[in-house]
From TrEMBL, chain A:
Matches recorded under Pfam families: Peripla_BP_5
Gene3D superfamilies: 3.40.50.2300
InterPro entries: Peripla_BP_I
PANTHER family: ALIPHATIC AMIDASE EXPRESSION-REGULATING PROTEIN, PTHR47628
Protein name as annotated: N-acetylmuramoyl-L-alanine amidase
Organism: Paenirhodobacter populi
Superkingdom classification of source: Bacteria
From TrEMBL, chain B:
SUPFAM superfamilies hit by this protein: CheY-like (SSF52172)
One term of GO molecular function: RNA binding
Protein name (record): ANTAR domain-containing protein
One Pfam match: ANTAR
InterPro entries: AmiR_N, ANTAR, CheY-like_superfamily, Sig_transdc_resp-reg_antiterm, WH-like_DNA-bd_sf
Organism: Paenirhodobacter populi
ANTAR domain mapped to chain residues: 126-186
Amino acid sequence: MKRRINIGLLYSRSGSYSLIADACRMGVLTAVAEVNGDQALDLTFVLTERDPGGNIDLYGPMCEEILHDGGARHVFGCVTSWSRKEVIPVLERAGGTLWYNQPYEGFEASDHVVYSHACPNQHLLPLLGWTFGRFGRRGYLTGSNYIWGWEMNRLARELIADAGGETLGERYLPIGSTEVDRMIDEIRATRPDFILNNLIGASQYRFLNAYAELGRQDKHFSPDRCPILSCNLTECELHAVGPVAEGLVAAGPYFRDAPGPAGVGRFGSSHEAAGYAAVWRLARLLAGRPGAENAPLSELLASTAAAETGIDPKTHHTVLPVLIAQAEGGSFRVVKDCGSVAGDPYLTRGRELALPAPRLRVVP
Amino acid sequence: MKRRVRSQNLGGARAILLHRPHPTVQALERQLAAIGLAVEQCWPDLPASAIAADFIFFDADHGHDSQFPWEPGNPPMPMIALIGSEAPGRIEWALNAGADAQLLKPVGDGGAFSALLTARAAFEARQALAAEVAALRQRLDQRQTVVRAVAMLMGLGKTEDEAYAQLRAMAMAWRISFEGAAERVVAAQRGPDTQVRGGRDD
């Protein structure tokens, strides 16, 4: 007899970032179907779903509904860091857990969240290290006007300064805004070595289009001289962006067409892979332990089953492959495999970028 | 003043929690461990090693001055008050003990990181101010020396303005402060064997 365990789903199926939400949701649903069909497991997951529709103010109340009315303790959801920060107080009050399956900006280790996707030491640091050695250290920073862009760019600014580089500009757009002309004008004027793109949704799509147009006018702004970098663009948005994404360099734990432990083409994107992995981790924490579904996360992570899930009991982050890949003909081609790296949200283990050794010159 | 608070350098830092065993201590230990700090809990006495800690969190509800082995209000590291009862007397005591930041009890899922950064920034600002005040105070104390040095140089037949100008020129040549130059002039005059000599920083 299988235990029926309620879990929640809190993804926005419409709005600016719905493509990412759909990808995560797909991964979660695939894994739930597998878990429910697995006769070796003594549990099935029953879903309660709420759709905030991209409205930030609905995340808190809807998370509360899932936890109280749905009787769930574990919620899979949230795309933006803003929405994650909205639901954490609700989780804390109710003793719930959010399984967050997005790359994010780090500097968080809530007792009520498991972070299944990459944080800066797994995306931004390796990506900038690779870029500095290949293109230079003069960057232009963009972002959507909320915490992901602000914090990513703050860290990038520090890393650029530490490496002796220069931040030539930093500009933000409200979520959903497509007024990218000023950014493009500033980029044209400052001629950076790379552009760090932390825009999301429609702003990002418009920006990539405008930058491709700039590249047609001036050869400096081509991917082989001044690439656009991203820590959250994956295959799930690539088709929406179209051919203008060509040459964009992204960091992530999984790319669809890269060989790896997950297998080529197993998931559509790293978002999907992270959602899938999160559900299986929860299943392993609960399987064979009746009553565990009512235990708080801290108790689950203190169990022996926790070690196999790869969740660090201190930070609730995971060990992930770190890959750097370049968009090419509608998919990503891996250009560097940095191996597996444990999430280090507060950069406690340092912030070295693994730069290539400096070239020494004989000074006459 | 615009402050740039850098988030680095917390990894490996040592924090002492001066608080009796309590769920608040557990919650705080969890947060600090996640941020990367080594944590030691103690109550009611601070161990001798506390002097080398990077941060001290202390109980503002039951704490008292004799717990701290340094001059009251002048701890050698940033301190963070753990405040349960917001009674004015207790807040006043916590401030006088040298709290650079605070965290309200019960401590839950957050607050430690901002308290650490706030406390460190406030502590550093306080240290910088104290150093500046000490330097200014020293210059004030040297006013009499300056007057003496000017009087001596005037005794050699200079006007007051010329004496000042000469003293300033000496300070520049020796690359020391105006007050430092005055001190050398006075010292050279006093001791029969000493001479006004330049070229070395004090």
